Amino acid sequence: xxxxxxxxxxxxxLAGEIPKEIINLVELEELLLGSNRFRGxxxxxxxxxxxxxxxxxxxxxxxxxxxxxxxxxxxxxEEFYLSDINNLVGTIPHSISNCSELTILDLSYNKLTGxxxxxxxxxxxx
Length: 126
Fold this sequence. Notes:
- By secondary structure, the protein is mainly beta.
- The chain has one domain: Ribonuclease Inhibitor (Leucine-rich repeat, LRR (right-handed beta-alpha superhelix), Alpha-Beta Horseshoe).
- Helix content is 3%, strand content 25%.
- The protein is built from one helix and ten strands, in the order ββββββαββββ.
- The longest helix is centred in the middle third of the chain and has 4 residues, at 70-73.
- 24% of the residues are buried.
- Keywords: Glycoprotein, Leucine-rich repeat, Repeat, Signal.
- Residues 1-15 form the signal peptide.
- InterPro entries: Leu-rich_rpt, LRR_dom_sf, Plant_LRR-RLKs.
């Protein structure tokens, strides 16, 4: 079992899929993989690291959708950056309002459809 609280790999022009082995970082709190050339599906293993507080995957070429139970998968998430992924589709799950620590949510420049869950308005800034 690997123990690490931060993975910071910004602007390194890393390519390929995000490695599924990232799930072995069980104490990971911050996953910062923005501005690379990651492609392929938005791997669900990221959403199985319940201690994550910050996810920054913006400016990659990932695809897929957000899991409907996102709020229960990432209860401690504070900052969630998935902008400019280009192929993120589907809707913003209503369960995201269960992320009571969430202060930043950036899903801009994607192909999301539907309404913004009104329950997001009930989250408070910390």
